[in-house]
Fold this sequence. Notes:
Elements: H1 2-15, H2 17-46, E1 57-66, E2 69-73, H3 80-87, E3 91-107, E4 110-119, H4 123-126, E5 131-133, E6 145-149, H5 150-157, H6 160-163, E7 167-170, E8 174-182, E9 195-198, H7 199-203, E10 218-223, H8 229-236, H9 239-243, E11 249-255, H10 256-259, E12 265-266, E13 269-270, H11 275-302, H12 308-316, H13 321-358, H14 368-393, H15 398-402, H16 410-446, E14 456-460, H17 469-477, E15 482-488, E16 498-499, E17 503-504, E18 515-520, H18 524-528, E19 532-535, E20 548-552, H19 553-558, H20 563-566, E21 570-574, E22 577-585, E23 600-604, E24 609-614, H21 619-633, E25 642-643, H22 644-650, H23 653-687, H24 689-697, H25 702-736, H26 747-773, H27 777-783
Parallel strand pairs: 4-9, 6-8, 18-23, 20-22
Antiparallel strand pairs: 1-2, 1-10, 1-11, 3-4, 3-7, 3-10, 5-8, 6-9, 7-8, 12-13, 14-24, 14-25, 15-24, 16-18, 17-21, 19-22, 20-23, 21-22
Helix pairs in contact: 2-11, 2-13, 2-23, 11-14, 11-16, 11-23, 13-14, 16-23, 16-25, 16-26, 23-26, 24-27, 25-26
Amino acid sequence: MLRLGFxxxxxxxIKYKTSFLINIIGLTSGMTCAxxxxxxxxxxxxxxxxxxxxxxxxxVMAVENxxxxxxxxxxxxxxxxxxLKTDFPDVQYAATTTWIFPTVLSYNNTFIRENGYHVGKxxxxxxxxxxxxxxxxxxxxxPSSICISRDVAKKLFSxxxxxxxxxxxxxxxxxxxxxxxxxxxxxxSTYQFDFVLPLQSFLDQADWANDWANSGPLTxxxxxxxxxxxxxxxxxxxxxxxxxxxxxxxxFLKKYAEQYLYGHYANGVPDGGRIDYVWxxxxxxxxxxxxxxxxxxxxxxxxxSKRAQEVGIRKTIGAGxxxxxxxxxxxxxxxxxxxxxxxxxxxxxxLTPFNTLTxxxxxxxxxxxxxxxxxxxxxxxxxxxxxYPAFYLTHFRPIAVLKNEIKNSSGELWARRGLVVFQFSIxxxxxxxxxxxxxxxxxxxxxxxxxxxxxxxxxxxxxTISNRSEAFFNALKKIPEVVHAGGTSxxxxxxxxxxxxxxxxxKAAEEHVIFERFFVDxxxxxxxxxxxxxxxxxxxEFSTDTTKMVINETAAxxxxxxxxxxxxxxxxxxxxxxxxxxxxxxxxxYQSLHQTVEPAYFRLASTYYIAARLARxxxxxxxxxxxxxxxxxxxxxxxxxxxxxxxxxxxYSSEKRVGQLSSYFAGFAIIISCLGxxxxxxxxxxxxxxxxxxxxxxxxSVGTIVILLSKDFVRLVLMSIVIALPLSYLFMQEWxxxxxxxxxxxxxxxIGAAVTSVVIAWLSVSSQALKAAIANPVQSLKTE
Length: 784
């Protein structure tokens, strides 16, 4: 019987080749999408989850209440880590870390630029970054020590063993002894670095970091085994307030492995994060598989009458319903497993471009978990896709079948129509979603930011340039291809440095406002093409401008002044230090458009970045001359520049990737849906071949017959539009709510999606309708 079942299944596949191919292509496409999405989702959940103490590893977060609302930040006082370990028995390990600007490491005239961190002594006990050489318990005890990666050791010393005990110059003047070497950092870590220095070396130089009233570094703890994290979080809540009486900061513990996916807060309340995209693509994968299953179910039930006599005969000779159900579900499982094998091969072929698109390094290896997921998905897909046809086909009574009394029931017809409506509703929602995501991304990247970011390069002052900055700037401005050049402490790509301690006349004592702090020079204004709302920028003509400040329009508004009223106001930065406002700058965006413009102030001080506006069309020549100048002022260093507009575009890499992935997956969904309509249209034309022949004999035109065969399908798509458009509007409104600046959901987006879906559906069925309409009616009537 088993052999007979395989033989019957094989003959049916050969007999109904079109349906078989449509099912294979549809299920393969759906499973390929599901494979790729599941690999991406799995990789997202693995980020930062590889540490040995992951179940007890937490990041200390800070909650601060200000006039503008409640803010949740990673920034903590520099002394927090060591103090928590001393004062709280629940804490086994604690470490504070702070990022180091990309810095040049040198040894014997070999110079390399690498990323690094200052970290607390417990860093390698908290995080699982394996040490090749060195003891995690004491590798960072000496403030003059440095730990480097395997790659850095090879670049500077040819091999790992030669590096230990050697002195490396970090930056221009500081030297550190190699006390440890760690394995290269996995791409599963959000922490990406090439060297670490002891935190103490940072605290010895940064006086502000030794003040509990200031914050900036990040702090991580590992709790002792058995400690209740919620209770431990409550215990440390008011710790900063115990150090600074007027502090508004409250602390809490956040599971470190969750910070990557659940890192977004709205007014102090957790509000998702990358997990939203994980759920989005997981749902897309499920829906694409459902669409493929719907195709299978529709085509199988549509073909039911063709196989009704097979069921009747087999029942007559003794076949039971359970056996028949097994036969048809078995056929579905065969198609599902065949599709799964093909999909695995396609996923392997597409993995390289998929990694390029997603910015990941996912590997497709046959692990037991992956095999279990793939087999489970194929089983589920086969059972779902084959269940309805199996139960539908096997409920026929043998005598009715053999007397040809089987007719399509209205229930079957409506079930098939319902599945088509559901299928196209999903497709229309995806079309709207792709359109909105694309339009929003275009809006973000093209919106005027309040300054001209074109042809501006940013690069850090390195080597001896910081000690000879005036001479360097003078030489830089003499390059003909450099239009303007200025200095700043801010990269204009997000919040860099804040100050909540400003006071001014009329400010309430309990009011706390966070100001973004910019250290600038005289020439940044012209370089960036800022615009003044009132007053002036800093000028060399005024020798006292080091005691002045410029604010933005938002700052003036929060302070309760109009731009004109703000001029001349004195602002207190510390108990004995005041600055006078001489200018109000028009608001510009120095963060992504996810955030509104925050209050900011500018003052003359030493800067880190150099911004240079290059002459249009002469960028290559300008950069070549700047590189030569840079090497002259900082021997051994290379110019590490980037274009500001490209850096800004990178802020929206997640949105762009979501848009690209969505468009590809929506394309798959559309193709699969069209395959289903194509198959149903072919079946409809086949069943109505005699009717079509008679109509043609009676004078019906080709156009009339095409419309006759197409209108039912177009009607179903119109029903899908009615259902899908309101749902897509709600979904897109929710997605856009995460942006402070966003597009308006124009009605034309939805009209365009509706028209597109109708055209796609009509094209899918019209080819089969046209084929039937132009067939010779004599042949149609003869075959019947």
